[in-house]
Amino acid sequence: MDYLLHTLVVSVIYSAFAVSLNLELGLTGLYNFGHVAFFGIGAYASALLSLAGIPAAGSLFLGMAAAGAAGALIAVPALRLTGDYFGIATLAFGEMIRLFSLNERWLTKGPMGLPGIPRPFGIHGGVSGLPFYLLLSVVLGVGVFLLAYRLTHSPFGRALKVVREDEYVAQALGKNVLSLKVRIVTVGSLLAGLAGALYGHYITYISPSDFTLNETILVLLCVVLGGRGTPWGPVLGAFLVIFFQEFLRFLPIPVDFGRVVAPLQGMVYGAALILLMLKRPEGILPEYRI
Amino acid sequence: MSTYYAQLLLNGVIAGSVYAIFAVGLTMVYGVFRFINFAHGELIAWGAYLTLLFSQVLPFSVAVAPALALTMILGISQDRCVYSPLRRRGRITLLIASIGLSYLLRNALRLVWGSDLQTYGFEAVRGISFGGLSITRTQLAMVVAALLFLGFLYGLLKFTMLGKSLRAAADNMELAELMGIDMKRVGTTVWTLSALFAGVGGILIGLDTNLEPMMGLTNLIKSFAAVLLGGAGNVWGALLGGLLIGIAENLGVAFFSPGYKDAVSFALIVLLLLFRPAGIFGIIGGVR
Fold first, then answer.
1. Which domains does chain B have, with CATH numbers?
2. Strands in chain A per DSSP E
3. Which 8-state DSSP code applies to residue A31?
């Protein structure tokens, strides 16, 4: 039962994370391959602030703000070029943030990580706090979802879809493409930061190895599997992927094979991405097109 | 003190010549197919690891041959199985498939060889020194190999019919096809060359330092920075870009903590995107 609650909490947090990526990848067509960086910035900022004595409920939002600010900062140079360049620039940014958290020991304690992150609103760190934390993440997760839903169906969201389909058309219609993109990347980073902060306070221990390319691939798979550009797709994808991942732990795998499980899992995720692109690029829930 | 900087500069040229090999392969694929192959880094790593595999039964200099052959086959099958069917589907599909492929290949590598550092098992030899600078035999071989392969590429592109059709395809794919150039042949050549160059560079890096599953990703980011420096699709620009990246990150060691060596190329990417999006030479376009 507790394990189910745990899986649900992680699924909700990943749903929020996937929704934030979907705003960039699905709605606007920006290949952000370093989205985990903002998840990590949110987690680290919130964890450090709460360890410094700020109440965790407040640090959660400060962490979110930090990720948003980082997103806005990186978006301006990275979005000067379109297409593949943004993909590599963000991929490199993700690695850069990982290197930073590994090397700046005075701030992040390097590879040792940050233990003992308090949970907000006095929720207990152990198993007894699980239902309350689930409630908190569902409330925030629904907030993220509603915000993304409103954005998608607003004139701003429609303009973003035009940018995705054809930038020149958007320009011809008098839209400032760069500004649109910078704004959506900022929103996406804000929400990813919130998801990251929630994750950090939930797990109560973070280290640079929690925010690697693996997490980027995982969240990318969530978005692509569920359906790019749809409001529900990323949520469905996140639940499927996280439940699959947690279910694997129950398989009777002999200890000797423990070493091969992680790479095998990675191979499955990579192969799933390729197969989805080859056979069903629109995902489980295809986007409604007129 | 000046020998210290001269040594760093020399190290930069050595590292840079290998980055140049990677970058040339990456930019060639970009020049013809107009997409960044995220799995290029994995060709680097597979080239190095396959050599490790074959060198356990064969002498090292012989083991290189089947390893490179397999890397080239891997490069061609990337295109045949994944990229070619997706070519008309739009870029985002292609890019997601490409990052998925790189993840699949990297984890396959970890599955076979584990995540630990590996070496080819050569004893460390003392470098040859001259005028206070030192260079090991491996490093000398790196520069020589880079010169040989890039010279071969120059000859191919400049003087053969195949090279000319390659340049034509990079310039304008449809027009080249209309002129009766066999695009399938061009595609296969580009992938073979790109994989060959990646494999050679991977082996050289493995000889100089060590092998680890993440070597593909780190080198991919560096080669991308080199490609951007030279202007995407520009082969000779990528060559100079690679050299510059190598020099910049080695000189950077004098000023920052070595932990940030890999971050230098990222900082360069950001600066370039801000100030010279078309590359330092300001040329956008195909293989020239």
1. 2-275 (1.10.3470)
2. none
3. -
| Beta bridge partner(s), residue B133 | B130
Sign of the CA dihedral with A104 first, then A109, A112, and A116 last: negative
Query: The domain containing residue A187 runs over which residues?
Result: 2-212
List C-alpha distances in Å: B207 to B175, B211, B288.
Answer: 43, 9, 32
Enumerate residues 198 to 217 of chain B having a beta carbon within 8 A of any beta carbon in chain A: 217
Residue A248 in domain: no
- Look up residue A140 and give its two tokens: 């925030």
Which residue in chain B is spatially nearest to A223 when comparing CA positions?
Answer: B96
Task: Give me the number of domains chain A comprises.
Answer: 1
Question: Between the CA of residue B120 and those of A66, B14, B92, B188, what are the distances in Å?
Answer: 44, 19, 38, 31
Q: How far apart are CA B199 and CA B22, in angstroms?
A: 9
Test mutation, A267, A276, A280, A282, chain B, max B CBs within 10 A? A267
Torsion over CA of A246, A187, A100 and A202, rounded to 10 degrees?
-40
A266 and chain B: CB distance < 8 Å anywhere?
Answer: yes
A153 phi, psi to nearest 5 deg? -95, 10
Answer yes or no: is A262 within a domain.
no
Which 8-state DSSP code applies to residue A23? I
A143 CB near a chain B CB, below 8 Å?
Answer: no
pLDDT at position B279 is 61
- One-letter-per-residue 3-state SS of chain B: CHHHHHHHHHHHHHHHHHHHHHHHHHHHHHHHHCCCCCCHHHHHHHHHHHHHHHCCCCCHHHHHHHHHHHHHHHHHHHHHHHHHHHCCCCHHHHHHHHHHHHHHHHHHHHHHHCCCCECCCCCCCCCEEECCEEECHHHHHHHHHHHHHHHHHHHHHHHCHHHHHHHHHHHCHHHHHHCCCCHHHHHHHHHHHHHHHHHHHHHHHHHHCCECCCHHHHHHHHHHHHHHHHCCCCHHHHHHHHHHHHHHHHHHCCCCCHHHCCHHHHHHHHHHHHHCCCCCCCCCCCCC
Tokens of B132: 């206070």
The stretch A189-207 carries a mean pLDDT of 90
Q: Which of B36, B89, B277 sits opposite A84 (nearest CB)?
A: B36
- The answer to whether B104 contacts chain A (CB < 8 Å) is yes
- Give the distance from residue A25's alpha carbon to the nearest chain B alpha carbon, in angstroms: 9
pLDDT digits (tens, 9 = 90+) for A275-284: 888 888 777 8
Confidence (pLDDT) at A289:
65
CB contact B265 to A (< 8 Å):
yes
- Over residues B60-107, the pLDDT tens digits come to 888 889 999 999 999 999 888 888 888 877 778 888 888 899 999 999
Q: Would you say residue A235 lies in a domain?
A: no
**Which tokens go with B84?**
């070619």
**Is position A38 within any domain?**
yes
Structure token pair of residue B68: 């490179």
Over residues B233-282, the pLDDT tens digits come to 777 888 888 888 888 888 887 787 777 777 777 777 777 766 766 665 55
Structure tokens at A112: 């040792």
Nearest to B227 by CA among B272, B187, B264, B197: B272
pLDDT at B286: 38
